[in-house]
Amino acid sequence: MTHQAPHPSPHCDAVARRLLTASAVRSYDPRTEIDWDAPLAPDLWFWPPERLTLYGTPLWDRMDHRQRVTLSRHEAAHMVRMAQWFELATIRLFARYLMARDGLDARAFYALTEMGDETRHITMFGRLLDRLDCRIHPMPAHIRLPFPLAAACFQDITLFASALIFEEVLDRYQREAMRDERLQPLVRSVCRLHVSEEARHVSFARAELCDAVRRASRGHLAFNRSFTALLASYTVPALVHPDRFGDLGLDPRQARHQARHNPHHRDTLLWAGEKLIAFLTEVDLIKGPQHPLWRHCGLMA
Ligand SMILES: [Fe+2]
Ligand SMILES: [Fe+2]
């Protein structure tokens, strides 16, 4: 499958120009914007308790406050580690997208700007992971190993849909975390910086995705609906099911079982996917036949 150079689009061009201006005005350097040396408060949460996988389960009821805070620390570290990997994947996909283009226009310049943002974010997440000091788990092999091969099949729709899946879901969690005064100031600062720059990435991906879908033939669109849903069913669970229970001294099988059947966690996933599912349905990228795969990843009821 070949990668196609994008079709001219005055709307996408205007969006890219607006985002380039916004990036020039409001881009942040995490090295200086964030107080990396601020001490961590022993009783503050690292992630909103209601968003933790075990919240409200029998295991949760048996934990004291300190153990619950430790769980929040590990689940925050999981999100951050996954974000790092997905942003590295985005950079790789964007580089391939740009290399397939004949010339570099405003849309390409914005894609390059976004790659620059992600480079800073990945470094910022690395520093946060150092402070969180939790064991680093690799991306599961069933995602990591086939990624290079799958990436070669990505075209415009898949590229921007995959970026949007990860960005919209993470955005939902981080917008809430940055406002939550019960959380560690360091975590809130990282979320605030990330949300502010990712809002531009979401706008870019939405505009490009709309354009790509509008131009797609029926066959191409049908293929991409299925491919996107398959992609989500493989990758989203890795992001939204933190499984660090062994590191916390919990029985991993019991904890995993309670997390998977936790109605609070199920509601959290639906909440996390709300905006994404509404948008992808609106642009005709989700139809009835894809619902089972979207349900499988937990983002759709
Ligand atoms: Fe990012
Ligand atoms: Fe991004």
Task: Break the fold down into its secondary structure elements and pairings.
Layout: H1 10-25, H2 30-33, H3 58-62, H4 65-99, H5 106-132, H6 141-144, H7 147-151, H8 156-179, H9 185-215, H10 218-240, H11 252-260, H12 263-282, H13 291-296
The structure holds fe (ii) ion (2 copies).
Description:
There is one protein chain. By secondary structure, the chain is an all-alpha fold. The protein has a single domain, classed as Orthogonal Bundle (Ribonucleotide Reductase, subunit A). The chain contains 13 helices and no strands. The protein is globular, with a radius of gyration of 19 Å. The structure holds fe (ii) ion (2 copies).
Helix count from the secondary structure assignment:
13
Low-confidence stretches: none
| Ligand list | fe (ii) ion
CA radius of gyration: 19 Å
Q: Distance between the terminal alpha carbons, to the nearest Å?
A: 33 Å
Query: Helicity level, as a percent range?
Result: 55-70%
Q: What's the story with the biggest beta sheet?
A: none
- Apparent shape: globular
Total tally of structural domains: 1
Mean pLDDT: 94
Order of helices and strands: HHHHHHHHHHHHH
CATH fold group: Ribonucleotide Reductase, subunit A
Q: How much beta, percentage-wise?
A: under 5%
State the secondary-structure class: mainly alpha
Per DSSP E runs of 2 or more residues, the count of β-strands stands at 0
